[in-house]
Automatic annotation (TrEMBL):
Bias type Pro residues, positions: 10-20
Top-level taxonomy: Eukaryota, Fungi, Fungi incertae sedis, Mucoromycota, Mortierellomycotina
Region Disordered, annotated ranges: 1-22, 392-412
Protein name: SET domain-containing protein
Pfam family, one: SET
Domain SET: 59-533
InterPro entries: H3K4_H4K5_MeTrfase, SET_dom, SET_dom_sf
GO cellular component, one term: nucleus
């Protein structure tokens, strides 16, 4: 979901961009806990303190905290109408699927004037590896064969980062592969999810496999056979889930996602990696060569977890929307890895600090970091609650289809998972699917040793959640002059602009930047707000839209004024 944009070009010079404080460190594993702590701390502020922005004389705006809206931008001085107050840089972008090969540049999102001079990626034919599960060879879809990235010219490609572009094309190829789960599950199938082995023998193996398959060694995790009862002790019905306070819901979700990671690690440890033959030779596993087993691992996990439990289609193909999400995640993970590696040589050319003026697209803002992205507001809990409600609404008045289906299905082999899966909203199960898809793609690239020369990426559920639920309702739609949605991008430092139904700031896209311009005189310490889309309808309709799309009840001055008039 995205915030709407306006697309007018700039005409006057820039003031320096503000630097919002980063509340979180780069270790993603405890970000959720830290976020709760931070919000708790913020709750203890007095309102007079909260309304004072930290002075930053060179910047016209600074981040502050408002009790009923969270963080916001306040003016640090009087701002005149038509001042450019901020330039935002993205940290993660993804082109919408229909535009992948339609002459829109992946870097500047402009229409490519010279179609003959454009650069189309991948340049070389895609990997010859047969990406099928089971014995049947699946013909490549047209999507896989088509170009996945187009750039105006070398300048745009270099700014985007050729290594990253190449990597995203490789990932795209993997996520488009067909998951033929029926074939994989047959008697001659390559892999079956096994959950009958004693947990005590698995925990060490699971940790070892994770350490091998992911670049960061992780401590052996708690096994799902412990985590699932823990989750169900917190809530065992959708109704109980809907009543949980934030802290308990976070605990519940942590148990669920950690349980998924534990299952994934356990199954990976059965396969082992190519270097861990002894591990899986000890265990009785289905026949097949290791790489075939690995190819079948994630499709089978999806079948095990989702089939019969999820109303969303767990198809053999990844939906276009899911591909968009995975490209965005990969872009972000790539940039995070570059930060972690601090490999200047591999770094995109656009990242040089002294290059503050882009000849084609005007001035640049401060380059955001992964920590900036992690300090954005996570919408995981509100989204979860909304999805629970939606599922409940769908069930009202009709037979509880999901439950009937479960009871009559052959899903009993899911054992301890069954009860847990049956109470989760469908949307969360769809997120599992995207998570398994991305892990599948990365595992195949591991097996093919296909990362180099780009940095090797890995993901676990904590990282996945940290990124995914910050993208939700926080990413910006990139539109062309006819309002066509071309792409999505995350602008971490721009995400502190709150909404107002009477905004005093407007966004303008200039190439791949966003610029923020005052539309009126803004007094010192006054809040600077943009609008999240259409502000023309009446108050009730405006508020309903914001609640549905962005999960909050609007507390802007206009709504407060109109509400008090309505109540008189
Ligand atoms: C893009 S973020 C803006 C920054 C956010 N306040 C923060 O602390 O990170 C959007 C969120 O800010 C809050 N918000 C923005 N505009 C608001 C408004 N007019 N009334 C109430 N809350 C608002 C809501 O929580 C919303 O989900």
């Amino acid at each position: 979901m995205n915030l709407d944009l306006s697309l007018n070009p700039p005409s006057i010079p820039i003031s320096g961009p503000p630097t919002p404080s980063s509340l979180f460190d780069k270790d993603s594993s405890n970000l959720l806990e830290q976020q709760i702590h931070t919000l708790h701390l913020n709750d203890t502020h007095s309102s007079s303190e909260e309304l004072t922005a930290t002075p930053a004389p060179e910047n016209p705006i600074a981040v502050a905290f408002l009790p009923n809206k969270g963080r916001c931008y306040l003016a640090t001085r009087e701002i005149q109408p038509q001042e450019r107050i901020f330039v935002a840089e993205s940290f993660g972008t993804t082109m919408c699927d229909p535009w992948l090969d339609c002459g829109i540049c992946h870097d500047c999102w402009g229409r490519i004037p010279d179609r003959k001079a454009q650069i189309r990626l991948p340049r070389k034919p895609l990997s010859s590896t047969t990406l099928t599960v089971g014995t049947k060879k699946n013909p490549r879809s047209k999507k896989t064969e088509s170009t996945v990235m187009v750039f105006c010219n070398e300048t745009c490609l270099n700014r985007y980062g050729p290594l990253k572009a190449d990597l995203i094309c490789k990932v795209e190829e993997k996520i488009r592969r067909s998951w033929d789960i029926k074939q994989a599950a047959g008697p001659n199938g390559h892999w079956r999810v096994q959950t009958t082995i004693q947990p005590s023998t698995l925990i060490a193996g699971a940790g070892a496999a994770t350490a091998t398959l992911n670049s960061e060694a992780s401590a052996p995790a708690t096994h799902y056979s412990t985590l699932i009862p823990q989750a169900l002790a917190v809530a065992s019905t959708p109704l109980a889930l809907s009543k949980l306070q934030d802290q308990d819901l976070t605990l519940f979700l942590n148990c669920v996602w950690n349980a998924l990671d534990s299952l994934v690690a356990e199954q990976e440890s059965f396969i082992g990696t190519l270097q861990q033959q002894q591990q899986h030779e000890r265990l009785e596993i289905a026949s097949g060569v290791p790489d075939k087993r690995a190819e079948a691992l994630y499709p089978m996990l999806a079948k095990f977890l989702l089939e019969g439990n999820c109303k969303a289609t767990i198809g053999s193909k990844t939906s276009d929307d899911d591909c968009e999400t995975i490209r965005l995640l990969t872009d972000i993970l790539y940039r995070r890895q570059v930060e972690l590696d601090q490999e200047v040589a591999v770094h995109d050319t656009r990242e040089t600090a002294e290059d503050e003026q882009d000849q084609e697209h005007g001035p640049r803002g401060v380059q955001p970091t992964f920590a900036d992205l992690c300090s954005m507001q996570s919408n995981e809990l509100v989204l979860f609650r909304q999805q629970l409600q939606q599922d409940a609404d769908e069930r009202t008045g009709a037979e509880n289809e999901a439950d009937t289906h479960l009871k009559g299905s052959k899903q009993d082999r899911t054992g301890p998972w069954r009860e847990l899966l049956s109470i989760l909203p469908n949307h969360l199960l769809s997120c599992f699917y995207v998570y398994l898809r991305i892990r599948d793609a990365y595992l195949l690239l591991d097996i093919e040793s296909a990362w180099s020369p780009a940095p090797r990426l890995s993901i676990d559920s904590a990282l996945f959640r940290n990124i995914l639920y910050r993208e939700v309702a926080n990413s910006f739609g990139i539109r062309d002059s006819s309002d066509e949605l071309l792409a999505f991008a995350i602008f971490p430092r721009a995400s502190y602009f709150n909404h107002s139904c009477r905004p005093n700031v407007e966004k303008r896209r200039v190439g791949r930047h966003f610029e923020y311009w005052s539309t009126t005189t803004i007094g010192e310490n006054e809040e600077c707000c943009i609008s999240y889309g259409d502000i023309n309808p009446g108050r009730i309709e405006r508020q309903r839209r914001l609640e549905d799309m962005y999960f909050f009840r609007c507390n802007c001055l206009r709504c407060i004024e109109e509400e008090s008039v309505d109540n008189q």
